[in-house]
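During the first year of the project, the team set up a workflow for recording each protein of interest as an amino acid sequence followed immediately by a discrete structure-token representation. This format lets reviewers and collaborators read both layers of information side by side without switching files. As required by the reporting guidelines, we include two representative entries from the current panel. The first entry is reproduced here exactly as it appears in our internal archive.
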Amino acid sequence: MKPRYRTCFAVDIRRYTGRDPASQARVRDAMHEIVRAASQGARVPWRSDVGTDRGDGVLVVTGKVGVEVLFGDFIRKLGGGVRGHNLLAAPGEQMQLRVALDGGYLNKDPQGYSGDALNRAARMLDAPDFTARMDDRAAEFAVITSDDLYEVVRGYHLLDDKRLDRIQVEVKETRTTAWMWIP
């Protein structure tokens, strides 16, 4: 099958492994519910066979959805879900949620998808500058996107440039520029 352009997102719970197993299970369940609700509410289609569970997060290839939806309703609903969870959760079960958005040509085979956009999304989540700035601002939710996808959404004025920070991503073999913001 020929590669196809797809958008994708990766979600990760910050400081997940520092929790006891019972708290991990509850926070993980909450994260899955928040991601499902935000996806359904924003009409971001994806099936369970294209979402890869990563323990403390998910990596998802979306269906045919425009970037205006990902950078609009989806982000708002995801951030709102985190804030709602944290308002009701015990202090030890509150979460900081990171999300990476990207797009690119992906290959599909019987095991799922592969491609640079998926690799980049996973690496952007682990960028030291991203996590440090999130910690500096005590943010419960933050978003990072690739430079390529940023240029697309910037061209259509889908984001307020004044709210974004340019950061370098240097994780494993990935060396790139990305853009982050705290909605």
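The second entry, processed by the same pipeline in the following quarter, appears below.
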Amino acid sequence: MKFTTPLLLSGAILTLGLGGAAVAQPAPAAQEAGHRHERGDRPHRDPAEMAARRAQHLRDTLQLTPNQEPALNAFVSSMAPPADRRDKMRAARGERAAMTTPERLDRMKAHMADRQAQFARRAEATMRFYSQLSPAQKKAFDAMPPKGGRGGKGGGHRGGGHG
């Protein structure tokens, strides 16, 4: 055991030394550009444009018929985030600093309940849309990757549902 401890310590020191060197070096431009959203200068995407693209993608992929259009429109509109979400998030960010721990926990609990209600609304809309599809369309819809069809690339926790 006496031999293992100095070996572990030297490994930790070496790791810290290399880690410090990596931190001291500037980030490559490509890597830095990939993290723009962390600095807040990510371009804002128009929700209406995104909804239109989602609807067109579903029309094309599922080969929807004209009589399925109302179900598609209801489904796509139900997936839109609340219009004031961004404003609420900004306002809450400033308020959190002045909150006590129990107040922050209550706020988190309310936020979780809101997210659960949003999920229930979106799940119900998805099931209503799904019920309007033919068996072949259901199979195609089932094969679509979740989170906006990104296949795990940048899906994150935003967005929702299929399509």
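For the second entry, the following points were noted during internal review. Residues 46-143 form one domain. The CA atoms of residues 130 and 138 lie 7 Å apart. Both points are flagged for discussion at the upcoming steering committee meeting.
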